[in-house]
Amino acid sequence: MTYAYHPGAGFRRFDNAAASADQLAQAFRGLPEGSGPGHALAAFKRAAAYLAIPPSVVQLVDVLFAWTKPEDWRSASTPVVWPRNDKLARKLGLKVRQVQNLLDRAIALRLISHKDSPNGHRGGVRAPDGTIKWAYGIVLSPIGTRLEEFKAIAARGAREDDEIDALKRRLTAARRRTASLAQAALDGMVVGTGAEEELALAQSAARQMRNVRDISLLTGCVEQIEQRGRDLEGKVAAFLLEREALNHSAESNDIAPMGVNECIHSTTTTQPQTAKAVTSSRLAEKGSGNYDVRSAVPQSEVEEDLEKHGVDPDFIESVTPELCGSLGLGRRGWGELVQLAEQLADQNHIHRHAWHEACRIMGQRGAAASVIATVRKYQAGEVERPGAYLRGMSGRAAKGELNLGRTFHGLKDLRQAGAMRTMQAGGDPRSVGDIARRAMSQFVLSGRSS
Question: Domain locations in the chain?
C-alpha cells in the first residue's frame, strides 16, 4: 500500500510575504534614541489609514503591543510577545480561527513575523530587570524597522488630507455659487443660460467626489465646476444688464406729450375673452413674442399663482419640452402657449366645453398651463381620463384650492431626478423631445444663415 507523504503538514506556511517579514525582523537594530514602543505604535496607527490596513489588524497590533516593554526595543534585543491565540481571542472578542486569520493578514502586510519553538508553542521568560531571557512567539520587529517609513507615510497623508480638504471646500463653494446663480436666474426669469443643467452637474460632481482621494482628478473636477460657474455668472449678469437697459429705454419711451394720437389707452372689461379670441388670425399678426395675454383680461387666482412661482412660457417649455418643442423655433409667448394648449386638448380627447370652462375659471394662461400639465401626466400614465382631470382642476380652481405653480415645480424636480439617473447610467440626460427641438432649432438657424 502506498501512503502520501506531506512534509509541510502541521507547520507554518512559508511564502514570499513571510520571507519579507522575516527579513524586516532580522534588519531591526533597535529604535532611535529617545523613541520607545509607544512612538512606534503611534507612527504605525497614523500611517495605517493611508496604507489601507484594516482596522481589525490595527486593533490586533495594538493588543500585541500591550505585552511588550521598552527594554525589548533596544539594539541588542528583539521585541517578541507570546500570548496564546485563545487569550488574544478573548481580548479581541473574536474566535480563535479569526485571530489566526488576522495574524496571517498581519504577516502578509509585513507587520509581524514569527519565531517558532521546537515544539511549535509560544513561551518566554523575562529576567528580573525586565529583559527577555528567551522567547518564542510573535515578533514585532518589522514595525520598528519600518518606523521611518510609517512617519513619512503619515506626514505625506496629512499633507494630502489638507489639500483634499481645501479642494472639497472649493467644490462646495462652487456648488453653492452655482445654486445661487440658478436661483437668481429663476427669480429673474432668465432663460437660455442652462442654469438648471449647471446646477445638476455641480451637485452630481459634489456627490461623486465625496470619497475621492485622487488629487489630480479632484483638482480637474473643481477647476471645471468653477469655470462653468464663472461662465454661468457672466451669462446671467449679461442678461440682467440687458434687461435693465431695455426697461430703462421702455420707461423713457413711455413719456409722451398729451394729445398725441398714437397714445394708446388701456381698457378693462368684466367679460373674459374666449379661447378663440386668443387663437384668432389677429394673434398671428401681432407676432409670436409681442402678444401678451395678460394685457387682455384681469389675472385670475391661478394666473397669479403661476406668476408668483415664476412659471412662464420658458419655464413650462423647459419642464415639458416633449409637448412644447415647437415653441423653441421662434419667440415664445403666452399666445403661442394658449394656441398649443388648444391643439393638445383636441389631440388628447379633452372636450371643448372642458377647455372653455377652464378658460372661464382660470383665465387663458391658467387654462393653457393646466392642459399642458394634464397632457404631461396623461402621457406618463398618471392620468386615465384627461378631460375629467382638467374638469377636476377647474373645480379646485373655483374653490381657490389649485396650486398650479407647485405642480410645475414638482414636474421640474421629477425631470431633474430622471436626468440625474440617466447621467449616472451614462446616457444623455435630455429627453427625446428636447434633443429633437434643439436639432431642429440648429437646422433652422443654419438655413437662415445660408
Answer: 16-145, 154-249, 275-449
Strand partners, 405: none
Confidence of residue 443 (pLDDT cuts 50, 70, 90): very low
78-113 burial code (b ≥16 CB/10 A, e <16): bbbbbbebeebbebbebeeeebeebbebbbebbbbb
Question: pLDDT tier at 250 (50, 70, 90 boundaries)?
Answer: low
DSSP codes, 385-420: -HHHHHHHHHHHHHTT---HHHHHHHHHHHHHHHHH
Task: Give, for 139, the enclosing helix (H) or strand (E).
Answer: strand 132-139
Residue type, 303: E
Whole-model pTM: value is 0.51
Return the bridge partners of 81, or none: 138
Q: How far is CA 272 from the centre of its chain?
A: 47
Q: Please check whether residue 275 is in contact with residue 355, taking contact to mean a CB–CB distance below 8 angstroms.
A: yes
- In terms of Cα–Cα distance, which of 49, 42, 44 is closest to 158? 49
Is a pLDDT exceeding 70 seen at residue 281? no
Q: Tell me, what's the pLDDT at 406?
A: 87
Q: Report residue 314 as a C-alpha cell.
A: 420658458
Pairwise CA distance, residues 185 & 180, whole Å: 9
Mean pLDDT in residue range 64-71: 94
Lowest mean pLDDT among 253-267, 273-287, 311-325, 326-340: 273-287
The three grid cell numbers given for residue 375, joined into one nine-digit string: 397632457
Residues 6+ apart with CB under 8 A from 5: none
Whether the CB-CB separation of 191 and 314 falls below 8 Å is answered with yes
Is residue 54 within 8 Å of residue 106, measured between CB atoms?
no
> Looking at the domain that runs over 16-145, which CATH code has it been given?
1.10.10
Report the distance separating Cα 369 and Cα 309, nearest Å.
13
| Coil, strand or helix at 115 | strand
Sign (positive/negative) of CA torsion 437, 441, 447, 450?
negative
Q: Categorize the per-residue pLDDT at 229 as very low, low, confident or very high, splitting at 50, 70 and 90.
A: very high
Answer yes or no: are the C-beta atoms of 391 and 354 closer than 8 Å.
yes
Type of residue at 269: T
Q: Are strands 123-126 and 113-115 parallel, antiparallel or unpaired?
A: unpaired
Beta strands in 159-285, from DSSP E residues, in sequence order: none
Helix (H) or strand (E) holding 124: strand 123-126
Q: With the C-alpha atoms ordered 417, 421, 423, 427, is the resulting torsion angle positive or negative?
A: negative
Per-residue pLDDT band for 445 (boundaries 50, 70, 90) equals very low
